[in-house]
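Q: Given only this backbone (298 positions), what sequence would you predict?
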């Protein structure tokens, strides 16, 4: 019986090392203090379960990842998590662990491939795959944040209309925000509820509003927050600001829809030229070309 090749044994060893690392990355949990703070903020809201079992602290791989990655990278991932709405399934520790685990697995597999087939192309391929694996969690978070920002921009005009009606009916601005957050179901409603929670735990209103604009990264919402802060600073009626901003947001939403509609003919040109027109030419001119070729052959 022939012994197993060294490459097979090395691949088995890499897989054996990769599975525990991926397990640590997927099972990482935030620390107990963060979980308790999150549960306290969710107390009384739908979906909060403050009586549930407390989760364990971060594992070995998350702590190792936080020590290996530079502070700027951790801060960037934290900002991306804020823009993405901080998904409950992907806390900061888990994302850091996933980055290190994926890059390590990709690097080890690249070394095995390089040992079996040395060459410049294999080296470049291994480097590219390792880099993509390292930045993959950030790319996913960035995509999630962009989708969330688009949803917030789409919901902003209707939410401002609801707040305008509530303020004109006699409610205060924060009460109008609470009503819009309670009646809404999208990411903008979640951000409004979080802003009220920040104010409720003692953060100044101006800082809470500016933090809302910074978290979401939506230009229209940032412009609205700036107008609200200026109105509060100079004593301008909030109802007038809401009415003006709601009309402006509706106009911008209509303009964006018209712009996308005007881009459709340009986007259709490339599939038309590359896919449809060659097929039509083959169907229409193919028989004629075959007849011409048969005539010349005879």
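A: Predicted residues:
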């Amino acid at each position: 019986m022939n012994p197993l090749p060294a490459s097979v044994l090395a691949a088995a060893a890499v897989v054996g090392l990769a599975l525990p690392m991926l397990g640590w990355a997927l099972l990482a949990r935030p620390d107990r203090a963060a979980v308790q703070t999150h549960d306290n903020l969710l107390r009384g809201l739908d979906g909060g379960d403050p009586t549930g079992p407390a989760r364990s602290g971060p594992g070995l791989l998350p702590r190792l990842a936080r020590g290996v990655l530079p502070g700027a990278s951790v801060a960037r991932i934290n900002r991306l998590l804020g823009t993405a709405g901080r998904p409950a399934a992907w806390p900061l520790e888990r994302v850091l662990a996933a980055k290190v685990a994926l890059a390590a697995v990709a690097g080890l597999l690249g070394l095995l491939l390089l040992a079996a087939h040395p060459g410049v192309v294999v080296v470049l391929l291994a480097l590219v795959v390792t880099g993509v694996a390292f930045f993959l969690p950030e790319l996913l978070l960035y995509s999630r944040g962009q989708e969330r920002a688009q949803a917030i921009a789409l919901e902003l005009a209707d939410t401002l209309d609801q707040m305008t009606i509530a303020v004109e009916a006699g409610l205060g601005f924060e009460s109008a925000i609470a009503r819009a957050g309670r009646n809404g179901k999208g990411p903008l409603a979640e951000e409004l509820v979080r802003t009220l929670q920040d104010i409720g735990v003692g953060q100044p209103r101006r800082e809470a509003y500016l933090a809302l604009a910074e978290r979401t990264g939506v230009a229209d919402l940032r412009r609205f927050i700036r107008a609200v802060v200026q109105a509060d600073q100079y004593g301008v009626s909030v109802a007038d600001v809401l009415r003006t901003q709601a009309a402006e947001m509706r106009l911008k939403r209509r303009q964006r829809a018209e712009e996308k509609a005007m881009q459709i003919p340009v986007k259709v040109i490339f599939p038309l030229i590359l896919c449809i027109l060659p097929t039509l030419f083959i169907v229409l001119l193919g028989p004629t070309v075959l007849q011409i070729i048969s005539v010349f052959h005879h």
